[in-house]
Amino acid sequence: MVTEGTLPRDALRQVEQRLTAAGCPDADFDAAELLRLVLGVDVRLAFAPLTAEQAARLEELTARRADREPLQYLCGSWPFLDFELAVGPGVLCPRADTEVVAETAAGLLKEVPHPKVLDLCAGTGCLGLGVKRFCPDAAVTSLEKSPDALVYLKRNARLPGGLEITPVEGDLFTYWQTLPEGQLDLIVSNPPYLTAAEMAQLQPEVAKEPAMALAAGEDGLAFYRTIAEDYQQALRPGGALALEIGWQQREAVTALLAENGWVDIACQKDYGGNDRAVTARRSCK
């Protein structure tokens, strides 16, 4: 137990040992982040013994992380690309793989002036904000159904450096009915895509994230199916679609798009070499 008077490096070792025993996969990184939260500086720059308040705070955070509460929730914010997002219970944690989707999506807007973008199942807004980061003149609308996640989407809707999106509350399964035909240049989404079997086998940290942001029915395709069938007409001819997928879903998602008349279907891999971003366009015919 970390107590008042413990030196920061000793506290770091204690926390890492406890997190390792609890099964946290990156216990050394997590321990350093918890110390940074408590001390306000990197532990390598901290030399004064912990105060009673600091020790109590570190004990609380260590217990929560040992219970496998996501580190992102404990931090209250998390980096995505080169900006910081508010994050907490009730919203999906931003992940590095989604950065690949944002960059891929933005690449579909080359030479499109002032593009209009719709981000479906927005969560923290990371994907829409990522597109905006690469395409500063884009007008991005980000749709989210969950009231809990919408809180974070609204917090992140206006960030330093001109990163601004428009948060909207709505349901992907019906929102398409409100969209005029041919007005959008890009639709981007990281929808729920876990199958029922995958939901039953979640790692402890992921199981703490909202099921609403993860579960997509027996086959994991419920959201992709609606996007493929109902959202194409909202794009201008030649308008683009970029979807984050699970690493085993490329064939199923690309088949859905092909069956519904999408063209130029392709797939981009993530940093780990897994299939991650499926792209397509509305036919110009």
UniProtKB/TrEMBL annotation:
GO biological process, one term: methylation
Binding site for S-adenosyl-L-methionine: 144, 190
One term of GO molecular function: peptide chain release factor N(5)-glutamine methyltransferase activity
One Pfam family named in its UniProt record: PrmC_N
PROSITE patterns hit by this protein: N6_MTASE (PS00092)
EC code(s) of this entry: 2.1.1.297
Binding positions (substrate): 190-193
Residue span, Release factor glutamine methyltransferase N-terminal domain: 10-76
Ranges annotated as spanning the membrane: none
Catalyzed reactions per annotation: L-glutaminyl-[peptide chain release factor] + S-adenosyl-L-methionine = N(5)-methyl-L-glutaminyl-[peptide chain release factor] + S-adenosyl-L-homocysteine + H(+)
Membership in a protein family: Belongs to the protein N5-glutamine methyltransferase family. PrmC subfamily.
PANTHER family: HEMK METHYLTRANSFERASE, MTRF1L RELEASE FACTOR GLUTAMINE METHYLTRANSFERASE
NCBIfam families: hemK_fam, RF_mod_PrmC
The protein's name: Release factor glutamine methyltransferase
Organism: Faecalibacterium hattorii
Gene: prmC
